[in-house]
Amino acid sequence: MSKVIGIDLGTTNSCVSVVENGQPVIVPSSSGARTTPSVVAFAKNGERFVGETAKRQAATNPDRTISSVKRHMGTDWSIRIDGTEYKPQTISSMVLRQLKKDAEDFLGEPVTEAVITVPAYFNDIQRQATKDAGRIAGLEVKRIINEPTSAALSYGLDHGEAQKVMVYDLGGGTFDVSIIEIGDGVIEVLATAGDNHLGGDDFDERIVRWIAEEFKKEHRIDITRDFSAMQRIREAAEQAKKELSTSEITNIVLPYLTQAKGEPLHLETSLTRAKFQELIWDLVERTAGPVQSALSDAGVKTSELGRILLVGGSTRIPAVQDKVKALTGKEPSKNINPDECVAMGAAILGSTLQGQSLVAAGTGKDLLLLDVTPLSLSIETVGGVATKLVDRNSTVPTRYSRVFSTAAPYQREVEIHVLQGERPMARDNKTIGKFKLKGIRRAPAGVPQIEVTFDIDANGILKVSARDLDTGKSQSITITADDRMSDAEIEQAIYDAQQYAGQDTLRREALELTGEAQNVANRAQRALNAGGKQIEKAVKKQVKNDINVLSKLLGKFRADRVTEEEVEKIRQAKSDLERSSAGIMHYLDEN
Asked: Is 87 a catalytic residue?
C-alpha cells in the first residue's frame, strides 16, 4: 500500500510531508529545499517550469510566470498562454504534480493519494476547486483539511496535555485564526475566522509601492509600467521583508534596473524596520477582527488559552508577533516550524486514514480530529432573506434538515438557492449553487411540505437535497458553481497533464541527446582537421557525410515540437557518426 502524503498548497510556497516510522517528515524538493515556490512558468520554447526554476526566471519572463494563484481558487480567473486557457485549478495542479514527483523520488515508489490543506475560511467552491486540482495532478484527495487544524494536529501529536490553543495562521495570501481544544486524545476545533485576502503578498506589495515611489522621486520616472523591472522589485521587496525580521535595516540594490535616454539607471536605497512597520500597520491591524471573532464564537477568554501557535511565514514579522502578544497577552509559542507544521499535520491525517493510528503524547490514546465549517449555510426564502440551516463553526461532518413550503399558490416547482455567508439578506452572501425541485402537487401557498437537507462531509464539502414530503419527489446536488470546472473540463485537464508529462520526458531526453550528438559532431570534425591527409579518403568522405547528416537533423530540431521519430533519427545519426569516426579519434589524443 502506497503512503498518503500531506500537502500544504500555499499561496507563496508549498510543502509536502509523509509519515515515516510513526513521525511526519518533510519531503525535500528536487533542489534539496524543504519548501517549493508555488510558481509556474511557460518558456517560449514550450518548456514548463515549476517551483524554484520558475521563480528564478520570473524577472526575464514576467508575463508568462504565474504566482499566488491560490488567491484565485474558486473564481472565474484564467490566463491564456500560447492559445491555451489555464484556470487556477490547472495551474495549481502543476505545483501539486511537482510535489507528487518529489514525494515519489523521496519514497522510491508511486504516490496516488494525498491530504491537501486549505485556509479555514475557504468556501465550498474553493474547496471543490482544490480537490479538482489534486485530481488533475493524478492524486486521489482523501481529505481536505483546514490549515490551522492541520497545524494543531501536528502540534497535538507531541503535546497531548489538555489545553486550549489559538492557531494564528498568516501565510502568503490568506489569514486564519482557529481556537482549538486539545485533550484526552481529541483535537476539537471550537471556532474559526479569517480573511482570504490578507497575507505576505500584501506586505510585499506595500514595499514594492514604496520602492517605486522612491525611484520616481530620484529619477522622475514611473517604473510601474516596466514589467521586467517591477518583477525584480517584487523579488527585492520579498527579500527585504525577510531580512527585516532579523535586522533593523536592509539595503535594496538593483543595478541596471531600467534606462532613460540610453543611460542605465540603478536603484539603491535602504528600508528600516520602523518604516516597514509603518507601511504595513493597517494590514497587521486587520488581523485583530478575526481573532476577536473566533474567541467570541468559541466562548473562550484569552486567559484560558494555553498556547498561541504561529503558522505561516508572515508570522516571522516582529510587528505581527507584537500584535499577537497585544491581542492575547501571551508570548507566542515558537516550538513548531511555521512553514512545515501544516504539511506535517496533513501527513498525520493521511496516515490515520490508512488505518495507522497515531498516539497523542502523554495520553496513550489515538488522536481524534473534530473540525468545523467556517461559514454559515443558508437558503433564500421569501423577501430575499437568507435563512440559516447550518451555523458557522458547526462541527463537521454534519447533517441538518428543515421543512419549508411554497410562497405562491399552486406552484409546480421551487428553486433552492444555496448561500454561504453571515449577512441577513441573500443578495449580500455568496451564491454557491441553485437547483429546482419539480413535480410539486398543485396546492395553495403554504400547504406543500418541502424538506431541505444540508449534508456536509469531513472535507467541508456540501451536498444539498430537497424532498416533497407529499409526493416523495426529490432532487439533490453536490454544490457546484459556474466558477467550478465541469467534469469534462477536469477530464480534459487530466489528459493534457498526462500528455504533457510524456511530452516533457521526451523533450528532456531529446535535449540531452542533442547535446551529446553535438559533442560527437564537434569531436569528429576536430579529429578530421587533426588527421588531415593522413586519413584515408574513403574514411574521410564517410565521416564528413555522417557529420553533415547529423548537423542537418540538429539544425531542424525544435524542443517544443519534437517527435519520437525525430529523436530516433538523431540517435541513429549519432550512432553512425560514432562508428565511422571511431578509427580517427586517436588523432585528437596525438594533438
From this structure: no
Q: What is the pLDDT along the chain (591 residues), one digit of tens a residue?
A: 689 999 999 999 999 999 998 889 999 998 899 999 999 999 887 788 999 999 998 888 988 999 999 999 988 899 999 888 999 999 999 999 999 999 999 999 999 999 999 998 888 888 989 999 999 999 999 999 999 889 888 887 655 567 899 999 999 888 999 998 887 667 888 998 888 889 999 999 999 999 999 999 988 889 998 888 999 999 999 999 999 999 999 999 999 888 888 889 888 999 999 999 999 999 999 999 999 999 999 999 999 998 899 999 999 999 999 999 999 999 998 778 889 999 999 998 888 887 765 555 444 456 667 777 878 888 888 778 888 888 888 888 888 888 888 878 888 888 888 888 888 888 888 887 887 888 888 888 888 888 888 888 877 778 888 888 888 888 776 654 444 555 666 666 666 666 666 666 677 677 788 888 888 888 888 888 888 888 888 888 898 899 899 888 888 887 667 788 888 888 898 999 889 888 888 877 665
Contact call for residues 175 and 194 (beta carbons, < 8 A): yes
| Distance between CA atoms of residues 101 and 79, nearest Å | 25
- Is 483 a known active-site residue? no
> Exposure pattern of 69-82 as b/e (b: 16+ CB <10 Å)?
bbbbbbeeeebeee
> In the annotation, is 101 catalytic?
no
The values of phi and psi at residue 420, to 5°, are: -135, 125
* CA 47 to chain CA centroid, nearest Å: 21
Selecting among 102, 124, 132, 169, the annotated active-site residue is 169
Q: Is 395 left (phi over 0), alpha (psi -120 to 50) or beta?
A: beta
Q: Is 415 a catalytic residue?
A: no
Contact in structure between 146 and 188 (CB atoms under 8 Å)? no
The x, y and z cell numbers of residue 31, run together, are 533542489
Which listed residue (3, 8, 202, 388) is catalytic? 8
Q: What is the pTM of this model?
A: 0.73
Among 113, 124, 147, 204, the active-site one is 147
Indicate left, alpha or beta for 160 from its phi (over 0: left) and psi (-120 to 50: alpha).
Answer: alpha
Question: Largest Cα–Cα distance of the chain, in whole Å?
Answer: 109
Instruction: State the residue for C-alpha cell 539603491.
Output: 268
Q: Cα(499)–Cα(484) distance, rounded to whole angstroms? A: 23
Catalytic residue among 3, 70, 131, 164: 70
10 Å CB burial of residue 479 (0-12, 13-18, 19+) is buried
